[in-house]
Write a structure and sequence with these properties.
single chain; alpha+beta; Immunoglobulin-like; five-stranded mixed sheet; 14 helices; elongated
Protein backbone atom coordinates (compact mmCIF):
# COMPACT_ATOMS: atom_id res chain seq x y z
CA UNK A 1 0.00 0.00 0.00
CA UNK A 2 2.96 2.36 0.40
CA UNK A 3 3.41 2.97 -3.32
CA UNK A 4 -0.21 4.08 -3.98
CA UNK A 5 -0.04 6.39 -0.97
CA UNK A 6 3.24 7.79 -2.22
CA UNK A 7 1.82 8.51 -5.68
CA UNK A 8 -1.36 10.07 -4.30
CA UNK A 9 0.58 12.18 -1.81
CA UNK A 10 2.75 13.60 -4.60
CA UNK A 11 -0.29 14.44 -6.75
CA UNK A 12 -2.10 15.97 -3.76
CA UNK A 13 0.89 18.14 -2.87
CA UNK A 14 1.16 19.34 -6.47
CA UNK A 15 -2.56 20.22 -6.54
CA UNK A 16 -2.41 22.07 -3.24
CA UNK A 17 0.66 23.95 -4.45
CA UNK A 18 -1.03 25.01 -7.70
CA UNK A 19 -4.44 25.85 -6.24
CA UNK A 20 -3.09 27.59 -3.14
CA UNK A 21 -0.13 29.40 -4.70
CA UNK A 22 -2.00 32.68 -5.04
CA UNK A 23 -3.36 32.39 -1.48
CA UNK A 24 0.07 31.65 -0.06
CA UNK A 25 1.59 34.45 -2.10
CA UNK A 26 -0.91 36.96 -0.73
CA UNK A 27 -0.56 35.63 2.81
CA UNK A 28 3.21 36.07 2.79
CA UNK A 29 3.41 39.63 1.37
CA UNK A 30 6.34 41.40 2.96
CA UNK A 31 4.82 44.77 1.99
CA UNK A 32 1.18 45.70 1.79
CA UNK A 33 -0.95 48.84 1.78
CA UNK A 34 -3.52 48.79 4.54
CA UNK A 35 -5.24 52.03 3.54
CA UNK A 36 -5.07 54.28 0.48
CA UNK A 37 -7.20 57.40 0.80
CA UNK A 38 -7.41 60.01 -1.96
CA UNK A 39 -8.95 63.47 -1.75
CA UNK A 40 -9.27 64.98 -5.23
CA UNK A 41 -10.67 68.28 -6.49
CA UNK A 42 -11.72 69.08 -10.04
CA UNK A 43 -10.64 72.67 -10.58
CA UNK A 44 -12.40 75.16 -12.86
CA UNK A 45 -9.35 74.97 -15.12
CA UNK A 46 -9.93 71.23 -15.66
CA UNK A 47 -6.90 70.36 -13.55
CA UNK A 48 -7.20 67.68 -10.87
CA UNK A 49 -5.74 68.44 -7.46
CA UNK A 50 -4.87 65.24 -5.59
CA UNK A 51 -3.88 64.47 -2.01
CA UNK A 52 -3.10 60.83 -1.22
CA UNK A 53 -2.61 59.28 2.21
CA UNK A 54 -1.01 55.86 1.74
CA UNK A 55 -0.36 53.61 4.75
CA UNK A 56 2.32 50.98 4.13
CA UNK A 57 2.79 47.91 6.33
CA UNK A 58 6.45 46.84 6.29
CA UNK A 59 7.08 43.23 7.35
CA UNK A 60 10.77 43.26 6.56
CA UNK A 61 13.51 45.78 5.94
CA UNK A 62 12.95 48.39 3.20
CA UNK A 63 14.83 51.54 2.20
CA UNK A 64 11.59 53.32 1.35
CA UNK A 65 8.62 53.35 -1.00
CA UNK A 66 7.79 54.54 -4.48
CA UNK A 67 4.71 55.97 -6.15
CA UNK A 68 4.42 55.71 -9.92
CA UNK A 69 2.07 58.21 -11.62
CA UNK A 70 1.14 57.73 -15.27
CA UNK A 71 0.75 60.95 -17.27
CA UNK A 72 -1.26 59.57 -20.21
CA UNK A 73 -4.25 61.77 -21.07
CA UNK A 74 -2.90 64.73 -19.11
CA UNK A 75 -0.68 67.74 -19.76
CA UNK A 76 1.72 66.77 -17.00
CA UNK A 77 2.13 67.05 -13.25
CA UNK A 78 3.18 69.88 -10.95
CA UNK A 79 3.38 70.89 -7.29
CA UNK A 80 4.63 67.57 -5.92
CA UNK A 81 5.03 67.44 -2.14
CA UNK A 82 5.72 64.49 0.17
CA UNK A 83 4.86 64.47 3.88
CA UNK A 84 5.01 61.71 6.46
CA UNK A 85 2.29 61.66 9.08
CA UNK A 86 4.62 60.69 11.90
CA UNK A 87 3.39 59.91 15.43
CA UNK A 88 5.32 62.97 16.56
CA UNK A 89 3.71 65.23 13.97
CA UNK A 90 4.13 66.21 10.33
CA UNK A 91 7.47 65.50 8.68
CA UNK A 92 8.01 67.16 5.30
CA UNK A 93 10.39 65.46 2.87
CA UNK A 94 12.84 67.41 0.72
CA UNK A 95 13.17 66.95 -3.01
CA UNK A 96 16.76 66.14 -3.99
CA UNK A 97 18.56 65.36 -7.22
CA UNK A 98 20.35 62.31 -5.83
CA UNK A 99 20.04 59.90 -2.93
CA UNK A 100 21.36 56.51 -1.87
CA UNK A 101 20.15 53.60 0.21
CA UNK A 102 20.06 54.50 3.87
CA UNK A 103 19.11 58.15 3.27
CA UNK A 104 15.91 59.40 4.88
CA UNK A 105 13.42 62.29 4.69
CA UNK A 106 14.17 62.94 1.01
CA UNK A 107 12.56 61.98 -2.29
CA UNK A 108 13.55 61.77 -5.94
CA UNK A 109 11.42 62.49 -9.01
CA UNK A 110 12.25 60.22 -11.95
CA UNK A 111 10.54 60.92 -15.28
CA UNK A 112 10.50 58.16 -17.88
CA UNK A 113 8.19 56.96 -20.67
CA UNK A 114 5.38 59.43 -19.95
CA UNK A 115 5.35 58.60 -16.24
CA UNK A 116 6.71 60.05 -13.02
CA UNK A 117 8.07 57.86 -10.23
CA UNK A 118 8.49 59.32 -6.77
CA UNK A 119 11.19 57.48 -4.82
CA UNK A 120 10.66 58.23 -1.13
CA UNK A 121 13.59 57.39 1.14
CA UNK A 122 12.44 56.27 4.58
CA UNK A 123 14.21 53.17 6.01
CA UNK A 124 11.56 50.96 7.62
CA UNK A 125 11.24 47.51 9.15
CA UNK A 126 8.30 45.77 10.88
CA UNK A 127 6.23 48.94 11.18
CA UNK A 128 3.51 51.00 9.54
CA UNK A 129 4.03 54.41 7.97
CA UNK A 130 1.62 56.83 6.31
CA UNK A 131 2.87 59.09 3.52
CA UNK A 132 0.91 62.05 2.16
CA UNK A 133 1.61 62.83 -1.49
CA UNK A 134 0.20 66.04 -2.97
CA UNK A 135 0.26 67.01 -6.64
CA UNK A 136 -1.82 68.50 -9.45
CA UNK A 137 -2.55 66.74 -12.75
CA UNK A 138 -2.88 69.28 -15.57
CA UNK A 139 -5.81 69.38 -18.03
CA UNK A 140 -7.41 66.11 -16.97
CA UNK A 141 -11.06 67.08 -17.40
CA UNK A 142 -12.39 67.47 -20.93
CA UNK A 143 -14.83 70.14 -22.04
CA UNK A 144 -17.18 68.89 -24.78
CA UNK A 145 -19.92 70.91 -26.47
CA UNK A 146 -22.61 69.32 -24.29
CA UNK A 147 -20.84 68.04 -21.16
CA UNK A 148 -17.76 68.07 -19.04
CA UNK A 149 -15.97 64.79 -18.29
CA UNK A 150 -13.43 63.52 -15.79
CA UNK A 151 -12.14 60.13 -16.92
CA UNK A 152 -9.23 59.24 -14.66
CA UNK A 153 -7.48 56.13 -13.36
CA UNK A 154 -6.71 56.63 -9.69
CA UNK A 155 -4.97 53.24 -9.68
CA UNK A 156 -3.45 51.48 -12.68
CA UNK A 157 -2.66 47.92 -13.61
CA UNK A 158 0.97 48.79 -12.88
CA UNK A 159 0.35 48.53 -9.14
CA UNK A 160 2.10 45.48 -7.69
CA UNK A 161 1.14 45.91 -4.02
CA UNK A 162 -2.15 44.54 -2.59
CA UNK A 163 -4.40 47.10 -0.90
CA UNK A 164 -6.74 46.37 2.00
CA UNK A 165 -8.89 49.49 1.57
CA UNK A 166 -8.99 51.99 -1.31
CA UNK A 167 -11.04 55.19 -0.86
CA UNK A 168 -11.49 58.20 -3.17
CA UNK A 169 -13.42 61.44 -2.76
CA UNK A 170 -13.94 63.54 -5.89
CA UNK A 171 -15.03 67.12 -5.20
CA UNK A 172 -16.76 68.94 -8.07
CA UNK A 173 -16.03 72.61 -8.82
CA UNK A 174 -19.66 73.48 -8.09
CA UNK A 175 -22.68 71.93 -6.42
CA UNK A 176 -24.93 69.68 -8.49
CA UNK A 177 -28.16 71.49 -7.69
CA UNK A 178 -30.04 70.14 -10.74
CA UNK A 179 -28.95 66.53 -10.32
CA UNK A 180 -27.21 66.62 -13.71
CA UNK A 181 -24.07 64.75 -12.67
CA UNK A 182 -23.63 61.16 -13.82
CA UNK A 183 -20.97 58.87 -12.37
CA UNK A 184 -19.41 55.57 -13.37
CA UNK A 185 -16.55 53.51 -11.99
CA UNK A 186 -14.51 50.69 -13.49
CA UNK A 187 -12.60 48.08 -11.54
CA UNK A 188 -13.37 45.21 -9.15
CA UNK A 189 -17.05 44.34 -9.06
CA UNK A 190 -17.11 44.64 -5.25
CA UNK A 191 -16.45 48.39 -5.54
CA UNK A 192 -19.10 51.07 -5.01
CA UNK A 193 -19.53 54.66 -6.20
CA UNK A 194 -22.01 57.16 -4.73
CA UNK A 195 -22.69 60.88 -4.58
CA UNK A 196 -22.52 61.64 -0.87
CA UNK A 197 -23.15 65.42 -1.09
CA UNK A 198 -24.14 67.88 -3.82
CA UNK A 199 -20.51 68.38 -4.76
CA UNK A 200 -18.75 65.18 -3.59
CA UNK A 201 -18.60 61.73 -5.16
CA UNK A 202 -17.15 58.82 -3.24
CA UNK A 203 -15.83 55.50 -4.50
CA UNK A 204 -14.42 52.72 -2.36
CA UNK A 205 -13.08 49.19 -2.83
CA UNK A 206 -11.96 46.59 -0.30
CA UNK A 207 -9.24 43.98 -0.81
CA UNK A 208 -7.75 45.23 -4.05
CA UNK A 209 -5.36 42.65 -5.55
CA UNK A 210 -2.25 43.43 -7.54
CA UNK A 211 -2.48 44.61 -11.16
CA UNK A 212 -6.00 45.99 -10.74
CA UNK A 213 -7.18 49.31 -12.15
CA UNK A 214 -9.67 51.61 -10.45
CA UNK A 215 -10.97 54.53 -12.49
CA UNK A 216 -13.81 57.01 -12.27
CA UNK A 217 -15.79 58.61 -15.09
CA UNK A 218 -17.79 61.66 -14.05
CA UNK A 219 -20.08 63.67 -16.36
CA UNK A 220 -21.03 67.17 -15.22
CA UNK A 221 -22.24 70.44 -16.77
CA UNK A 222 -19.52 72.01 -18.92
CA UNK A 223 -20.05 75.25 -16.99
CA UNK A 224 -18.27 73.61 -14.03
CA UNK A 225 -14.90 74.08 -15.82
CA UNK A 226 -15.28 77.50 -17.46
CA UNK A 227 -11.55 78.22 -17.92
CA UNK A 228 -10.53 74.75 -19.11
CA UNK A 229 -8.21 74.69 -22.13
CA UNK A 230 -8.86 70.97 -22.79
CA UNK A 231 -11.72 71.61 -25.24
CA UNK A 232 -13.13 68.95 -27.60
CA UNK A 233 -15.38 70.46 -30.28
CA UNK A 234 -18.07 67.78 -30.46
CA UNK A 235 -21.08 66.41 -28.60
CA UNK A 236 -20.18 63.43 -26.42
CA UNK A 237 -22.80 63.05 -23.68
CA UNK A 238 -25.06 60.57 -25.50
CA UNK A 239 -22.13 58.53 -26.77
CA UNK A 240 -20.63 58.24 -23.29
CA UNK A 241 -23.98 57.29 -21.72
CA UNK A 242 -24.55 54.66 -24.43
CA UNK A 243 -21.01 53.32 -24.00
CA UNK A 244 -21.41 52.97 -20.25
CA UNK A 245 -24.90 51.49 -20.61
CA UNK A 246 -23.58 48.85 -23.00
CA UNK A 247 -20.76 48.09 -20.61
CA UNK A 248 -23.16 47.68 -17.70
CA UNK A 249 -25.44 45.46 -19.78
CA UNK A 250 -22.47 43.37 -20.79
CA UNK A 251 -21.44 42.98 -17.17
CA UNK A 252 -24.99 42.09 -16.16
CA UNK A 253 -25.26 39.50 -18.91
CA UNK A 254 -21.94 38.09 -17.80
CA UNK A 255 -23.17 37.81 -14.22
CA UNK A 256 -26.37 36.07 -15.32
CA UNK A 257 -24.38 33.72 -17.52
CA UNK A 258 -21.94 33.06 -14.70
CA UNK A 259 -24.78 32.26 -12.32
CA UNK A 260 -26.39 29.89 -14.85
CA UNK A 261 -23.05 28.23 -15.56
CA UNK A 262 -22.36 27.87 -11.86
CA UNK A 263 -25.76 26.28 -11.29
CA UNK A 264 -25.29 23.89 -14.22
CA UNK A 265 -21.84 22.75 -13.19
CA UNK A 266 -22.87 22.67 -9.53
CA UNK A 267 -25.64 20.21 -10.37
CA UNK A 268 -23.24 18.16 -12.48
CA UNK A 269 -20.73 18.22 -9.64
CA UNK A 270 -23.18 16.98 -7.01
CA UNK A 271 -24.47 14.20 -9.30
CA UNK A 272 -20.94 13.12 -10.19
CA UNK A 273 -19.98 13.22 -6.51
CA UNK A 274 -22.81 10.83 -5.68
CA UNK A 275 -21.81 8.53 -8.54
CA UNK A 276 -18.20 8.53 -7.39
CA UNK A 277 -19.15 7.72 -3.80
CA UNK A 278 -21.29 4.79 -4.97
CA UNK A 279 -18.44 3.65 -7.25
CA UNK A 280 -15.99 3.81 -4.37
CA UNK A 281 -18.28 1.76 -2.12
CA UNK A 282 -18.90 -0.80 -4.90
CA UNK A 283 -15.22 -1.47 -5.57
CA UNK A 284 -14.42 -1.34 -1.85
CA UNK A 285 -16.73 -4.27 -1.17
CA UNK A 286 -16.04 -6.09 -4.44
CA UNK A 287 -12.29 -6.31 -3.90
CA UNK A 288 -11.95 -6.32 -0.14
CA UNK A 289 -9.98 -9.23 1.26
CA UNK A 290 -11.78 -11.45 3.72
CA UNK A 291 -9.71 -12.41 6.73
CA UNK A 292 -8.69 -16.04 6.93
CA UNK A 293 -7.40 -16.95 10.38
CA UNK A 294 -5.44 -19.89 8.98
CA UNK A 295 -3.86 -17.73 6.29
CA UNK A 296 -3.02 -15.07 8.88
CA UNK A 297 -1.08 -17.67 10.86
CA UNK A 298 0.91 -18.59 7.74
CA UNK A 299 2.22 -15.03 7.42
CA UNK A 300 4.91 -15.89 9.95
CA UNK A 301 6.28 -18.62 7.65
CA UNK A 302 9.35 -18.18 5.48
CA UNK A 303 8.35 -16.42 2.20
CA UNK A 304 8.69 -18.20 -1.12
CA UNK A 305 12.21 -18.05 -2.50
CA UNK A 306 12.51 -14.98 -4.69
CA UNK A 307 15.04 -12.37 -5.65
CA UNK A 308 15.68 -9.45 -3.28
CA UNK A 309 14.85 -7.03 -6.11
CA UNK A 310 11.35 -8.47 -6.55
CA UNK A 311 10.84 -8.74 -2.78
CA UNK A 312 11.77 -5.06 -2.39
CA UNK A 313 9.44 -4.11 -5.24
CA UNK A 314 6.55 -6.08 -3.70
CA UNK A 315 6.98 -4.62 -0.23
CA UNK A 316 7.34 -1.08 -1.61
CA UNK A 317 10.86 -0.20 -0.48
CA UNK A 318 11.74 0.74 -4.04
CA UNK A 319 14.77 -0.05 -6.18
CA UNK A 320 17.93 1.60 -4.89
CA UNK A 321 21.60 1.07 -4.15
CA UNK A 322 20.83 -1.58 -1.52
CA UNK A 323 18.88 -3.49 -4.18
CA UNK A 324 21.99 -3.65 -6.37
CA UNK A 325 24.17 -4.90 -3.52
CA UNK A 326 21.55 -7.43 -2.39
CA UNK A 327 21.21 -8.71 -5.98
CA UNK A 328 24.97 -9.26 -6.18
CA UNK A 329 25.00 -11.14 -2.87
CA UNK A 330 22.04 -13.24 -3.94
CA UNK A 331 23.83 -14.20 -7.15
CA UNK A 332 26.83 -15.08 -4.96
CA UNK A 333 24.59 -17.24 -2.78
CA UNK A 334 23.28 -19.03 -5.86
CA UNK A 335 26.80 -19.69 -7.13
CA UNK A 336 26.81 -17.47 -10.25
CA UNK A 337 29.50 -15.01 -9.13
CA UNK A 338 32.23 -14.67 -6.56
CA UNK A 339 33.54 -11.51 -4.93
CA UNK A 340 37.19 -10.83 -4.13
CA UNK A 341 38.52 -7.78 -2.30
CA UNK A 342 41.66 -5.79 -3.04
CA UNK A 343 43.52 -3.20 -1.03
CA UNK A 344 41.56 -0.69 1.02
CA UNK A 345 41.82 3.05 0.38
CA UNK A 346 40.03 6.15 1.64
CA UNK A 347 37.96 8.55 -0.45
CA UNK A 348 35.92 11.39 1.01
CA UNK A 349 36.26 9.92 4.52
CA UNK A 350 34.90 6.55 3.36
CA UNK A 351 36.79 3.26 3.34
CA UNK A 352 36.72 1.84 -0.19
CA UNK A 353 38.18 -1.25 -1.77
CA UNK A 354 38.54 -2.21 -5.42
CA UNK A 355 36.45 -5.39 -5.43
CA UNK A 356 36.57 -7.90 -8.27
CA UNK A 357 33.39 -9.71 -9.29
CA UNK A 358 33.96 -12.92 -11.25
CA UNK A 359 31.42 -14.99 -13.15
CA UNK A 360 31.58 -18.60 -11.91
CA UNK A 361 28.56 -19.94 -13.75
CA UNK A 362 26.78 -18.99 -16.97
CA UNK A 363 23.29 -17.53 -16.84
CA UNK A 364 20.62 -20.22 -17.24
CA UNK A 365 16.88 -20.72 -16.97
CA UNK A 366 17.11 -20.90 -13.20
CA UNK A 367 17.55 -17.14 -13.23
CA UNK A 368 14.78 -14.65 -13.89
CA UNK A 369 15.05 -12.18 -16.76
CA UNK A 370 16.15 -9.29 -14.56
CA UNK A 371 18.90 -11.44 -13.05
CA UNK A 372 20.17 -12.47 -16.49
CA UNK A 373 20.11 -8.85 -17.61
CA UNK A 374 21.95 -7.76 -14.47
CA UNK A 375 24.71 -10.33 -14.95
CA UNK A 376 25.09 -9.44 -18.63
CA UNK A 377 25.19 -5.73 -17.81
CA UNK A 378 27.62 -6.25 -14.96
CA UNK A 379 30.08 -8.77 -16.43
CA UNK A 380 29.71 -8.56 -20.23
CA UNK A 381 28.93 -4.87 -20.80
CA UNK A 382 31.00 -3.22 -18.06
CA UNK A 383 33.53 -6.03 -17.66
CA UNK A 384 35.50 -8.31 -19.98
CA UNK A 385 32.99 -11.15 -20.08
CA UNK A 386 34.53 -12.93 -17.13
CA UNK A 387 35.29 -10.35 -14.47
CA UNK A 388 34.55 -6.75 -13.59
CA UNK A 389 35.96 -4.51 -10.87
CA UNK A 390 34.22 -1.74 -8.98
CA UNK A 391 36.70 0.64 -10.64
CA UNK A 392 35.56 -0.66 -14.07
CA UNK A 393 31.95 0.06 -13.13
CA UNK A 394 32.81 3.57 -11.96
CA UNK A 395 34.77 4.36 -15.14
CA UNK A 396 32.01 2.97 -17.37
CA UNK A 397 29.36 5.03 -15.59
CA UNK A 398 31.41 8.22 -15.98
CA UNK A 399 32.39 7.68 -19.63
CA UNK A 400 29.17 6.12 -20.94
CA UNK A 401 26.55 7.55 -18.62
CA UNK A 402 23.66 7.42 -21.13
CA UNK A 403 24.26 3.73 -21.95
CA UNK A 404 24.73 2.98 -18.24
CA UNK A 405 21.41 4.63 -17.41
CA UNK A 406 19.66 2.80 -20.24
CA UNK A 407 20.80 -0.59 -18.90
CA UNK A 408 19.80 0.40 -15.37
CA UNK A 409 16.31 1.49 -16.49
CA UNK A 410 15.93 -1.75 -18.44
CA UNK A 411 16.86 -3.70 -15.32
CA UNK A 412 14.24 -1.92 -13.19
CA UNK A 413 11.65 -2.53 -15.91
CA UNK A 414 12.47 -6.25 -15.99
CA UNK A 415 12.10 -6.44 -12.20
CA UNK A 416 8.53 -5.18 -12.54
CA UNK A 417 7.81 -7.52 -15.46
CA UNK A 418 9.15 -10.54 -13.59
CA UNK A 419 7.01 -9.64 -10.57
CA UNK A 420 3.95 -9.45 -12.81
CA UNK A 421 4.80 -12.70 -14.60
CA UNK A 422 5.11 -14.54 -11.29
CA UNK A 423 1.52 -13.63 -10.47
CA UNK A 424 2.10 -11.18 -7.64
CA UNK A 425 -0.32 -8.59 -9.08
CA UNK A 426 -4.00 -8.78 -10.02
CA UNK A 427 -4.25 -7.86 -13.69
CA UNK A 428 -8.06 -8.10 -13.73
CA UNK A 429 -8.47 -4.85 -11.75
CA UNK A 430 -6.18 -2.69 -13.87
CA UNK A 431 -8.85 -1.63 -16.37
CA UNK A 432 -11.02 -0.37 -13.51
CA UNK A 433 -8.09 1.42 -11.93
CA UNK A 434 -7.24 3.15 -15.19
CA UNK A 435 -10.87 4.24 -15.63
CA UNK A 436 -11.01 5.73 -12.12
CA UNK A 437 -7.73 7.58 -12.62
CA UNK A 438 -9.13 9.07 -15.85
CA UNK A 439 -12.21 10.19 -13.89
CA UNK A 440 -10.01 12.12 -11.45
CA UNK A 441 -8.97 15.04 -13.74
CA UNK A 442 -12.49 15.17 -15.22
CA UNK A 443 -14.03 15.58 -11.78
CA UNK A 444 -11.34 18.04 -10.73
CA UNK A 445 -11.92 20.25 -13.78
CA UNK A 446 -15.70 20.22 -13.26
CA UNK A 447 -15.29 21.13 -9.59
CA UNK A 448 -12.93 24.01 -10.40
CA UNK A 449 -15.37 25.34 -13.01
CA UNK A 450 -18.14 25.21 -10.39
CA UNK A 451 -16.03 27.07 -7.83
CA UNK A 452 -14.89 29.68 -10.35
CA UNK A 453 -18.56 30.34 -11.05
CA UNK A 454 -19.14 30.73 -7.28
CA UNK A 455 -20.96 27.46 -6.67
CA UNK A 456 -19.77 25.76 -3.50
CA UNK A 457 -21.15 22.42 -4.70
CA UNK A 458 -17.83 21.97 -6.48
CA UNK A 459 -16.09 21.31 -3.13
CA UNK A 460 -17.52 17.79 -2.51
CA UNK A 461 -16.43 16.79 -6.02
CA UNK A 462 -12.81 17.62 -5.21
CA UNK A 463 -12.98 15.21 -2.27
CA UNK A 464 -14.70 12.41 -4.21
CA UNK A 465 -12.31 12.88 -7.14
CA UNK A 466 -9.42 12.33 -4.73
CA UNK A 467 -11.19 9.14 -3.63
CA UNK A 468 -11.34 8.04 -7.28
CA UNK A 469 -7.64 8.73 -7.67
CA UNK A 470 -6.83 6.78 -4.51
CA UNK A 471 -8.99 3.83 -5.46
CA UNK A 472 -7.76 3.91 -9.06
CA UNK A 473 -4.12 3.67 -8.01
CA UNK A 474 -4.96 0.90 -5.53
CA UNK A 475 -6.77 -1.13 -8.21
CA UNK A 476 -4.03 -0.44 -10.74
CA UNK A 477 -1.38 -1.80 -8.36
CA UNK A 478 -3.52 -4.35 -6.50
CA UNK A 479 -1.76 -7.55 -5.57
CA UNK A 480 -3.22 -10.96 -6.29
CA UNK A 481 -4.21 -13.13 -3.35
CA UNK A 482 -0.92 -15.00 -3.73
CA UNK A 483 1.03 -11.74 -3.99
CA UNK A 484 -0.80 -10.30 -1.00
CA UNK A 485 0.06 -13.26 1.22
CA UNK A 486 3.70 -13.13 0.10
CA UNK A 487 3.67 -9.41 0.81
CA UNK A 488 2.40 -10.08 4.35
CA UNK A 489 5.14 -12.65 4.86
CA UNK A 490 7.80 -10.17 3.80
CA UNK A 491 6.26 -7.55 6.11
CA UNK A 492 6.49 -10.03 8.95
CA UNK A 493 10.09 -10.71 7.99
CA UNK A 494 10.93 -7.01 8.08
CA UNK A 495 9.39 -6.75 11.55
CA UNK A 496 11.55 -9.70 12.55
CA UNK A 497 14.72 -7.94 11.37
CA UNK A 498 13.79 -4.71 13.15
CA UNK A 499 13.22 -6.61 16.39
CA UNK A 500 16.67 -8.15 16.06
CA UNK A 501 18.13 -4.69 15.55
CA UNK A 502 16.39 -3.48 18.72
CA UNK A 503 17.78 -6.50 20.57
CA UNK A 504 14.29 -7.57 21.65
CA UNK A 505 14.78 -9.89 24.67
CA UNK A 506 13.45 -13.39 24.28
CA UNK A 507 13.09 -13.04 20.53
CA UNK A 508 14.17 -16.02 18.42
CA UNK A 509 17.12 -15.36 16.10
CA UNK A 510 16.65 -18.62 14.18
CA UNK A 511 13.21 -17.97 12.73
CA UNK A 512 14.60 -17.36 9.23
CA UNK A 513 17.72 -18.76 7.52
CA UNK A 514 20.72 -16.46 7.83
CA UNK A 515 21.05 -16.10 4.05
CA UNK A 516 17.54 -14.70 3.81
CA UNK A 517 18.01 -12.53 6.89
CA UNK A 518 21.15 -10.82 5.65
CA UNK A 519 20.44 -10.44 1.94
CA UNK A 520 16.77 -9.51 2.16
CA UNK A 521 17.30 -7.35 5.23
CA UNK A 522 19.73 -5.33 3.14
CA UNK A 523 17.21 -5.11 0.26
CA UNK A 524 14.58 -3.80 2.67
CA UNK A 525 16.91 -1.10 3.99
CA UNK A 526 17.41 -2.64 7.43
CA UNK A 527 20.60 -1.47 9.14
CA UNK A 528 23.21 -4.06 8.22
CA UNK A 529 25.01 -3.81 11.56
CA UNK A 530 23.33 -6.98 12.86
CA UNK A 531 26.04 -9.51 12.12
CA UNK A 532 26.86 -10.25 15.73
CA UNK A 533 23.16 -10.51 16.61
CA UNK A 534 22.84 -13.36 14.11
CA UNK A 535 25.83 -15.19 15.54
CA UNK A 536 27.91 -15.03 12.37
CA UNK A 537 31.53 -15.88 13.00
CA UNK A 538 34.10 -13.88 11.07
CA UNK A 539 37.80 -14.08 10.33
CA UNK A 540 40.47 -11.77 8.96
CA UNK A 541 41.94 -14.22 6.49
CA UNK A 542 42.83 -13.21 2.93
CA UNK A 543 40.85 -16.14 1.53
CA UNK A 544 37.69 -15.07 3.28
CA UNK A 545 36.20 -13.97 -0.03
CA UNK A 546 36.96 -17.17 -1.89
CA UNK A 547 33.80 -18.75 -3.16
CA UNK A 548 32.55 -21.59 -1.01
CA UNK A 549 34.00 -20.41 2.31
CA UNK A 550 30.53 -19.94 3.73
CA UNK A 551 29.88 -17.19 6.22
CA UNK A 552 33.41 -15.82 6.34
CA UNK A 553 32.83 -13.50 3.36
CA UNK A 554 30.01 -11.70 5.20
CA UNK A 555 32.60 -10.06 7.43
CA UNK A 556 33.85 -7.91 4.55
CA UNK A 557 30.34 -7.09 3.41
CA UNK A 558 28.53 -6.45 6.69
CA UNK A 559 31.38 -5.10 8.78
CA UNK A 560 29.53 -1.90 9.78
CA UNK A 561 27.08 0.55 8.31
CA UNK A 562 29.52 3.47 8.47
CA UNK A 563 32.75 1.88 7.22
CA UNK A 564 31.39 -0.89 5.04
CA UNK A 565 34.02 -1.16 2.30
CA UNK A 566 31.94 -3.27 -0.07
CA UNK A 567 28.76 -1.19 0.23
CA UNK A 568 30.71 2.04 -0.06
CA UNK A 569 32.61 0.78 -3.10
CA UNK A 570 29.49 -0.40 -4.92
CA UNK A 571 27.59 2.82 -4.17
CA UNK A 572 30.61 4.86 -5.24
CA UNK A 573 30.83 2.89 -8.51
CA UNK A 574 27.14 3.04 -9.37
CA UNK A 575 26.97 6.72 -8.33
CA UNK A 576 23.67 8.62 -8.26
CA UNK A 577 21.89 6.51 -10.87
CA UNK A 578 19.44 5.00 -8.41
CA UNK A 579 16.42 6.91 -7.08
CA UNK A 580 13.72 6.12 -5.25
CA UNK A 581 -26.11 53.75 -15.64
CA UNK A 582 -24.48 56.76 -14.05
CA UNK A 583 -26.54 57.27 -10.90
CA UNK A 584 -24.08 55.53 -8.65
CA UNK A 585 -23.97 52.01 -7.27
CA UNK A 586 -21.55 49.25 -8.17
CA UNK A 587 -18.46 49.18 -10.33
CA UNK A 588 -18.37 47.79 -13.84
CA UNK A 589 -15.50 45.74 -15.13
CA UNK A 590 -13.44 46.62 -18.16
CA UNK A 591 -12.57 50.25 -18.63
CA UNK A 592 -9.01 51.45 -18.80
CA UNK A 593 -9.62 54.35 -21.17
CA UNK A 594 -9.13 57.08 -18.62
CA UNK A 595 -6.12 59.28 -18.02
CA UNK A 596 -3.59 58.59 -15.28
CA UNK A 597 -2.80 55.30 -13.62
CA UNK A 598 0.22 53.88 -11.84
CA UNK A 599 0.82 52.17 -8.54
CA UNK A 600 2.97 51.98 -5.42
CA UNK A 601 5.44 49.65 -3.75
CA UNK A 602 8.66 49.38 -1.78
CA UNK A 603 12.38 49.27 -2.55
Amino acid sequence: MKKPFRIISCIFIILITIIGSSIISCGEQSLSITNWKIESNILESGDLGITEDITFNFKRKYNGVFREIILDGTSGIEGIKVIENDKNGILEYNKVDGAKKGDSNVFLINEKNNSVTLQIFSPSENEKKTFRIMYTMKNVAKKYNDTGELFYKFLGEQNDTPIDSFFVNIVLPRKDAGNRVRMFAHGPLNGEIHKITDDTINLRVQDVPKSTLIEARILFPREFIPISQNIVNRDAYSDIINEETELQEKIQKGLVKKEATGMLFGNIAIILSAVEILTFIFFLFKYRRLKDIHEELRHSEVPDDNTPAIAGYIIGTGINGNTIIATMLDLYRKGYIKIDGGEEFKKRRKILRDFTITKTREEDDNLLNHEKHFMGWLIDVMGNGTTVTTEDIKNYREKKSSVFTRYYNKWTQLIKEDANNKGYFDRSTRKYGLLLIILFPIGLILSIISLINENILGLPLIFTSMLMLFQGVVLLTRKSDYGYHQYKKWVEFRKHMKRIKKDDPGYSMDKYPKGISLIYGLAFGIDNNILNELGVEVAHREDAFAYGHGWLYWYFIFNSSSSNAFSNSINNSFGGTTSSVGMGGGFTGGGGGGAGGGGAGGF
